[in-house]
Fold this sequence. Notes:
Mean pLDDT of chain B: 93
Mean pLDDT of chain A: 90
CATH architecture of the largest domain in chain A: 3-Layer(aba) Sandwich
CATH class of the largest domain in chain A: Alpha Beta
Helix content of chain B: over 70%
Oligomer: heterodimer
Shape of chain B: elongated
Largest sheet of chain B: none
Strand content of chain A: 25-35%
Low-confidence stretches of chain A: 1-10
Distance between the termini of chain A: 38 Å
Shape of chain A: elongated
CATH superfamily of the largest domain in chain A: P-loop containing nucleotide triphosphate hydrolases
Strand order of the largest sheet of chain A: 5-6-7-3-8-9
Helix content of chain A: 25-40%
Order of helices and strands of chain B: HHHHHHHHHH
Amino acid sequence: MITSPTYTQCMTPLAVDVNALVKRYGTIIAADGLSFTAARGEVTALLGPNGAGKTTTVEICEGYRRADGGTVRVLGLDPRDQALRARVGVMPQSGGVPTGTRAGDYLRLIASFYAHPVDSEMLLERLGLTSSARTPYRRLSGGQQQRLSLAAAVVGRPELVFLDEPTAGLDPQARHATWELVEELKTAGVAVILTTHHMEEAERLADHVVIVDRGVVISSGGPPELTGAERQLRFRARPGLGLDELLSALPPATMAKESPAGHYVIEGDLVPELLASVTAWCASHGVMTEDLRIERRTLEDVFLELTGRELR
Amino acid sequence: MSSVFTPSPGAAPLPRMVGAQTSHELRTLLRNGEQLLLTLIIPVALLVLFSSAPLLDLGPGRRVDFLTPGVLALAVLSTAFTGQAIGTGFERRYGVLKRLGATPLPRSGLIAAKSLTVLLVELLQTLVIGAVALALGWSPHGNPLTAILFVLLGTAAFSGFGLLMAGTLRAEATLAAANLVYLLLLVLGGVVFPLTKFSGGLRSVLELLPISALADGLRQVLQHGAGLPARDLLVLAVWAVLGLALAARFFRWE
Lengths: 312, 254
């Protein structure tokens, strides 16, 4: 939702338009024909295993690095255009704040670079930093440093913000405060691009998810599109149930798996009879189920399916 | 629906950005104990120590008149070169420069703020060193504008090399090298030890150092009332052009 459309917003509906991006570091190919778009007033999440090319892509969009190939437009402009600096907020993965500078002083300094900044005191308050406003950056906790960094990215009232792992290392309270801020940014019409390893975060915040692996986009869409309409029956029980025997009691084309041990997933046409058959089979084998539920696949399931389970 | 975050982008006017960054850099410097030691305490201590005790043969004339120009040159070296190299080196290492690059403050504005900060600290150093020197009986001669010209040229030369070091070496290497250079130039650059103590061949090389040209130029003006020490001015100008050109060419922001 765009609340105060301006001339440029009408001209360029896309906040970010990346097309066939290529970036190499020596023999390593970080981006290998990567394409995606991000709309204004939406949260776009870039997901991918470590080394997939997320940070490279984001840093090219932020104007820090040059692409070796393809086209990148940010708010309709070349990402290195100096005019974007006032329109785009950036929260790097870590650091960037002078270690001896007090939190409040830093935010006021950054605010003074903008024509119409958000009130610094209000922003500190919103992010629970008021009591640390006089604390030097190096003595803030990791979570406080992250929140200060987030505040600095949004204080200039940008049209677009890049948040690189904004909730890494945050406690649940701080994570929720961050999520609420991101939701408010979106409601206010700001385009948000975030990278994250928390699938739950992407599922909750993102309108659009882009899954990146080995320098290319391997899947994208809204979270419901990615997870699909298909549902699963899940339950926990003692490990080592005879799944073949269970399947023989169910309609053909039903699938069952145990992963990890003691966690069972059954996929197929989830009609009431199927649920009854499963519980009847369990009852006849003296199996007590726990956490029995029917749900959609999670984004994490989809992510692991697409990118594999091996460690990188 | 209206929110405090409804986009309203825009950069502040450049003078406001540069002013805010300068004030930030000044506060950072003045709060830093090691910086104060380097920029104020060591120069003042050298001035007081060697003025009051005849530990060195400083040549004819009053000791304080010889020492004050040298200590002023040292003050310029400590702020424009050593302090700036170390401070900027760590800012680069911690991604501070990179992050500022994502704000509307242009690089030219950041460099302007850094230069302004150096000049303001030098003004403070000059006031303190001058006051201490006057209390020790210093009687300056010559045209103060010529002395200021020397300080500005020296600042340009030392800033160039300080930024070159900060923008190319690792922060730890810059820390070590900038302190080493400070110490070497203090001893070898005619700051408190007269260059006349060195043998002819070595001396003519040492006279080409930027610190020697600055110390000698200030001494010619402030101690001997010289008009415009052309040789020192030329040496310093060459160092300034060289340093700034190399820094502009090789400085890396991250």
